[in-house]
Amino acid sequence: MRGRHLYIIFILILMAMPGMAQEKQPSMYKVTEMSFNSGFFNEISPVIVKDGIMFCSDRRFSGLKDRTSFEGRRIYNIYIAIRKDSSNWIKPDELKSERTNLFNNGPLCIAPDGKTVYFTSEVETGKAAKKRSFKNHSGIFIAEKTGNSLGPILSFPYNNQQYDVGQPSISLDGRYLFFASNMPGGQGGSDLYYCEWINGKWDTPRNLGPNVNSSSAEDYPFMHPSGRLYFSSNRPGGKGKLDVYSTTLSFGTWEAPVAMPDPINSSSDDFAFVVDDNMQTGYFSSNRLHSDDIYQVSSTIIRKASCDTLVENNYCYQLIEENAVKFDTLPFRYEWKMGDGSKGIGPSVIHCYPGPGSYLVQLDVVNLITKEVMYNEKTYNLEIKNVEQPYITGPDKALSDQKLKFSADSTNLPGWNISRYYWNFGDESVMVGKEVDKVFTKPGMYNIQLIVTADAEPGGVTREACVCKNIIVGGQP
């Protein structure tokens, strides 16, 4: 027995293993006032176009002359601002039409063809509109943009001299037109409606219903290409006067609107929110400083385009005495001492260690015929280490609205002086901290990223690592 070779084979068994105060959470957005705001006058209702934005303003027609309506109020018109570089804009140009000097123009939206403009203006343009006592109403008008001009102008078929229709937003495919109106039969105040393009014309307006509309005012709809609808409302429970909300259509029903977070919403009026296709840069209007101005909002949410998939730490091994497996008729018993106080019997055993560490594995072999015991016939110093990576400890499955804990406590990055643990949960929410609590509000599969950043090293080099894992969130039973 002592003359033959004895081998111990360690086979890693792939098994998932099951754990500070939370740090201040980062703001999801950064807000910057646009440089082309006029200061004293108002700029509202931005619309994202190629190389810039369109917006509405009641700024002066010239350096000295105000442009006013028949009742003496300054008139809004449409302007185009082209981006000069990442932070500067060319002086806005006015978009002129036959209505420019006497009637309001805007808010507006651009059809998918890039040239058809739907904009808000007064319905009555005849003699009655010139009387100061006349109560004019707004409607939606349609015109083709050529250079910096609009024309000819067509009227939306559901304009009415008895109520307001305006603030249009068209879907990416041009099939649906959303707008605000105080037409009879709504929930109260102004409501959001939509029309569908059917057989070459806009079908009858439909109210979005009580899940979206309230007894307060709902205005400034914006339908994002993702299917998310943004709008503004002064309903109770907001942060200020007008606040920005969003909702999505799920299985034919509009979900309960959710207010946008700070610093988009404030104690002032915040309205007319739009955002680009990637949801990284948007614009909105607010009077938080003085007059109504346009602000740019940039997402601060970090999400890596490429992130390593989490490798689960695994402490389970299969120990095999190779010769015993080959010659299983030999009359020997194999007794294993695992190095952690545990024992095992057999030519092949599976054992799960409590965690990383150094374990002295010893194999005693008993001759069942002679009863001779060959102690420590084979010894092996087993070093178990965690995978060098950031590490996500948390569930793989959960229910919506369930409070979950995620921890980075098992992160193993030797030599790193970690300064931040940053979590992206795949649902436009982020958190910072070594251990965080999270609630997913909707069922689905979410890809969680943990991004770990170390303190800057000499020379200004900052190390960063990222891992990700999926979690499946089911609906409540």
What topology does this entry show?
Blueprint: E1 8-13, E2 29-33, E3 43-49, E4 52-57, E5 77-82, E6 93-95, E7 108-110, E8 116-122, E9 138-146, E10 149-150, E11 154-155, E12 165-170, E13 176-181, E14 191-198, E15 201-202, E16 206-207, E17 218-223, E18 228-233, E19 243-250, E20 253-254, E21 258-259, E22 270-275, E23 281-286, E24 293-299, E25 308-309, E26 316-321, H1 322-326, E27 332-337, E28 343-345, E29 348-352, E30 357-367, E31 373-384, E32 397-399, E33 403-407, E34 418-424, E35 430-432, E36 435-439, E37 444-454, E38 464-474
Parallel strand pairs: 25-38, 32-38
Antiparallel strand pairs: 1-26, 2-24, 3-4, 4-5, 5-6, 7-8, 8-9, 9-10, 9-11, 12-13, 13-14, 14-15, 14-16, 17-18, 18-19, 19-20, 19-21, 22-23, 23-24, 26-29, 27-28, 27-30, 30-31, 33-36, 34-35, 34-37, 37-38
Query: What is the residue-mean pLDDT, rounded to a whole number?
Result: 88
Low-confidence stretches: 1-6, 15-22
Strand content: 35-45%
Count of DSSP H/I helices: 1
Distance between the termini: 62 Å
Count of domain modules? 3
Largest sheet features: 6 strands, mixed
Q: Architecture of the largest domain, CATH level 2?
A: 6 Propeller
Number of strands: 38
The radius of gyration is: 33 Å
Reading off the top of the CATH hierarchy, the class of the largest domain is best stated as Mainly Beta
What does this structure look like?
- The protein has 477 residues and is an all-beta fold.
- The chain starts with 7 loop residues before the first strand and ends with a strand.
- Strands 25, 32, 34, 35, 37 and 38 form a six-stranded mixed sheet that branches. Strands 7, 8, 9, 10 and 11 form a five-stranded antiparallel sheet that branches.
- A hairpin with a 2-residue loop joins strand 14 and strand 15.
- Helices cover 1% and strands 45% of the residues.
- The chain has one helix at 322-326, and strands at 8-13, 29-33, 43-49, 52-57, 77-82, 93-95, 108-110, 116-122, 138-146, 149-150, 154-155, 165-170, 176-181, 191-198, 201-202, 206-207, 218-223, 228-233, 243-250, 253-254, 258-259, 270-275, 281-286, 293-299, 308-309, 316-321, 332-337, 343-345, 348-352, 357-367, 373-384, 397-399, 403-407, 418-424, 430-432, 435-439, 444-454, 464-474.
- The model is unreliable at 1-6 and 15-22 (pLDDT under 50).
- The radius of gyration is 33 Å and the shape is elongated.
- It is built from one helix and 38 strands.
- The longest helix has 5 residues, at 322-326.
- 30% of the residues are buried.
- It has three domains: 29-299, 6 Propeller (Neuraminidase); 314-384, Immunoglobulin-like; 397-474, Immunoglobulins (Immunoglobulin-like, Sandwich).
